[in-house]
Design a protein that fits this description.
Length: 347
């Protein structure tokens, strides 16, 4: 074999190695996307041409923070090899100290939206979030009995279900298990907010018998009771695209899903605004308070001080008059009737 042929063979081998290496990296990237264990938080999907240097500049105001962005996304083995479609969690820094996981995301989300590069909030428990509706939903079935006469119904248990409304429960179909609760009238809210629908789990129909259906509890969120109800299961994506909020909107928190007196970070709650007000999943709003102060000690005249933001919420799902929200950030506890408005840091 002459030198020219040897050289051509060597070059061909190197090209093949490079192609295999590139294929391997792409394959690993695809596998990494599927293997990411998401936590609650804001995520960004990498676009063509993105680098950690550029993303660090956009989200942290300094390209030199890219090592922190890489370090906090352990699914990226090499910071110089990132691919379109991969998802990275955003850690927005306000200083050079530790990276906060639940800080207010200020103008950054708004700036990224304007470039058409979508930011998502990932909420793994979105299927568990119930809703408030003006009228109770019509149930598809009622739990009559649990196999083996268990005191509590849990995941894996077999349940016997009475069909409601003359509509059969087909084998293989999934249903939410829920109960209705009339929410307490919230402070400063005159109209009655509606009926709360409280999800306790998911059941799948496994068999049909004369006059009833047999189901299996495949997910258990909370304690399920006899005579809890069923409604068709409609999966909701855990990735919520951040969208533009409604300027000038003001409303109030109705109550927390668990009827807590104090509502804090990561709690689910409901607000008195819905689709009729332009509310959509992915919108963000401030939780605020506004105080009055006397002009002087000897005067009864008072002025309204500027609103103070102490928390942020994210809309998860909507009804006509109400919406289900997640408290993503809170400096102090909120409460029933707390005010909400267009993000004060964007206004």
């Amino acid at each position: 074999m002459n030198c020219k042929l040897k050289f051509q063979t060597f070059v061909s081998a190197m090209i093949m190695c490079a192609l295999l290496f590139n294929f391997s990296l792409n394959l690993c990237a695809e596998e990494r996307v599927g293997e990411i264990e998401y936590e609650n938080g804001f995520y960004y999907t990498i676009q063509k041409g993105d680098t950690l240097w550029d993303l660090s500049q956009k989200f942290s105001d300094s390209p030199w923070q890219w090592p922190d962005l890489w370090r906090e996304n352990k699914q990226l083995p090499n910071p110089h090899w990132i691919y379109p479609g991969e998802r990275i969690r955003l850690y927005l820094k306000e200083d050079t100290g530790s990276i906060p996981e639940n800080k207010i995301i200020k103008q950054k989300i708004h700036q990224i939206e304007s470039t058409k590069k979508q930011v998502y909030y990932y909420y793994s428990k979105i299927d568990q979030a119930g809703f408030i509706k003006s009228d109770a939903a019509k149930p598809s079935g009622t739990i009559l009995k649990v196999k083996d006469k268990k005191a509590m119904i849990n995941e894996g248990d077999i349940i016997y279900i009475r069909e409601e409304g003359g509509i059969p429960l087909p084998e293989g179909k999934k249903y939410y298990i829920y109960r209705t609760m009339k929410p307490v009238r919230a402070q400063n809210l005159t109209p009655y907010p509606g009926v709360q629908h409280y999800f306790t789990g998911i059941a799948e129909i496994v068999n049909k018998e004369a006059g009833f259906a047999v189901g299996k509890v495949i997910k258990s969120y909370r304690a399920t009771n006899l005579y809890d109800l069923l409604m068709p299961y409609e999966p909701i994506k855990s990735e919520i695209a951040i969208t533009e909020s409604i300027k000038g909107l003001k409303g109030r928190i109705i109550l927390s899903e668990e009827h807590k007196a104090m509502i804090g970070e990561n709690d689910i709650a409901f607000i008195d605004k819905g689709t009729k007000d332009g509310i959509q999943p992915g919108q963000r709003y401030s939780i605020f308070y506004q105080e009055k102060e006397k002009i002087s000690a000897n005067s009864n005249q008072a002025v309204l001080l500027p609103p103070v933001q102490y928390g942020m919420l994210l809309v998860l799902r909507t009804e006509k008059d109400t919406s289900t929200i997640l408290i993503t950030y809170s400096e102090k506890s909120a409460h029933d009737g707390a005010g909400i408005c267009y993000p004060l840091d964007e206004g």
